[in-house]
Design brief:
Blueprint: H1 2-15, E1 19-22, E2 27-29, H2 35-43, E3 63-67, E4 83-89, E5 92-97, H3 102-113, E6 121-124, H4 130-135, E7 138-141, H5 147-150, E8 155-156, E9 159-161, E10 164-165
Amino acid sequence: RQESLSRLEKTAKEHGHPLVYLSESECYANSEQHPLVIESFHYLSLDPPDCQADFWQGRSIYQAFLYCQEHEESKYVGMFPDVSFIRWYPYALDVLPAQGSKAKGIEALLDHLGLSAADAVAFGDGLNDREMLNFVGMGIAMGNAHEEVKSFADMTALEIAPGITA
């Protein structure tokens, strides 16, 4: 796993693409105040992460964000067999273990609670929510969801005003 992160870090650096690494409880960027990182975290209503370039080394990293445009994905997708890349923002991809997803996380939680997927409800709006919405008994796409996401949901919430849903 560390070997893949090392290769990802090297490849991203060669192409000038920043990364944000997420552990169990912390996240750090590998570059200082990159505009795409700042923009995406503001979109999520979060403060942008501080820079700690070597944060990924020697610890468990559960997810990363790779910042590149859609036409640049080919530099990564298929080049790292033990990770998957899922676009969630115009300039950002989730980087997850190949078998990891929001659906897998929900499945583990439901197993722990003794519940089935049919008992679960999930809400989503981004392309990284497709599998999750399809997995649960009731998948609800937010009114502002990406159009493709809505086809994976059982229903779509109403959009009251831009950015506000019921």
